[in-house]
Design a protein that fits this description.
D-Maltodextrin-Binding Protein, domain 2; two-stranded antiparallel ribbon; 13 strands
Length: 305
């Protein structure tokens, strides 16, 4: 009879294509991982991996097994968690994918409150670019995703807005804009900018907000492109230019070191959504987390009702 644990070992090995890395992720020894794979290969009477030295490659049989194994493993987890929940407590393991800002500034507060209500539910967070977070959800590799865009690219998911994130313009304390406190949108052409990468939610939000003005984002003089908002705040602090960051970063990282500058008539607000896969069976822990997150009053990032 097939063993769900062995199939899970196979899935991790298939993802890493490295028995040593799979062993590290599973907290097992490398020989134990190899043994589990060999047992499966004997059971199916066919190789699942092509081995060439330390290099691994999935066979056609191995590729065919992945979705079937994933389904059985998911069902096994569902059975374990459901039977455990029948004893009066909700427990289980949640997988959440999210981009950088939600991962740093939303999830810690959200999970602290959820953990207080359901202390036996474990959560693993995977912080990655938003497109990858959506992809993981679409493939069923995570149970939830936090993102500010991309919900339409995942037809098997349901997304709901549950928080919003004001994006603000920041400048060095000695910058003329910092002294004035507000500028006209046309003045954006006079500055040197430090921006996030084009694939980020922050960039796309700014792009959408400026698209209806006389200064679309493509017109900005961009000196640096950085991969996170904290780095932008520090670069602005050093006087390298001005930039856009989440308001929570401006307050938490930049307070006393950078100035917030209003743009007359322009408000830049990013909606943060939580999404779940709708075609996969949900455990009681997943249902509890979804109900908890979507019951929160929509508030600015870092503020929870």
């Amino acid at each position: 009879m097939l063993d769900a644990h062995q199939l899970n070992v196979f899935l991790v090995a298939a993802e890493t294509l490295n028995f040593t890395q799979a062993a590290q992720r599973l907290n097992m020894s490398q020989p134990s991982v190899s043994q589990h794979i060999q047992v499966l290969e004997r059971h199916f009477n066919t190789p699942l991996f092509l081995r060439s030295g330390r290099s691994l490659q999935l066979t056609d049989a191995g590729l065919a097994l992945i979705p079937l194994a994933q389904e059985l493993v998911n069902q096994s987890i569902l059975i374990e968690e459901t039977m455990g929940s029948l004893q009066g407590e909700i427990f289980g393991h949640l997988l959440v994918g999210c981009s950088t800002t939600p991962g740093k500034y939303i999830l810690p507060h959200l999970l602290a409150q959820f953990h207080h209500e359901h202390p036996k539910v474990r959560v693993t967070c995977q912080v990655s670019p938003q497109a990858h977070a959506i992809e993981l959800l679409s493939e069923g590799k995570t149970h939830f995703a936090l993102a500010s865009f991309g919900q339409k690219s995942c037809p098997d998911a349901e997304f709901r807005q549950f928080i919003y994130d004001p994006i603000v313009l920041i400048a060095p304390l000695d910058h003329p804009w910092a002294i004035r406190g507000e500028i006209d949108v046309s003045e954006l052409l006079d500055a040197t900018f430090i921006l996030r990468e084009e694939e980020s939610g922050t960039y796309k939000t700014i792009q959408d907000a400026l698209a209806t003005t006389e200064v679309p984002i493509e017109y900005l003089n961009t000196l640096l492109t950085l991969g996170n908002s904290e780095a932008i705040a520090l670069a602005v602090q050093e006087g390298l230019g001005v930039g856009f960051v989440s308001q929570v970063v401006a307050v938490g990282i930049g307070r006393g070191h950078v100035a917030t500058v209003n743009i007359a008539g322009v408000d830049i607000i990013r909606a943060i959504y939580i999404g779940r896969h709708t075609r996969l069976p949900a455990t009681k822990a997943q249902i509890a987390f979804w109900n908890f997150a979507t019951s929160l009053e929509i508030s600015p990032i870092g503020v929870y009702a």
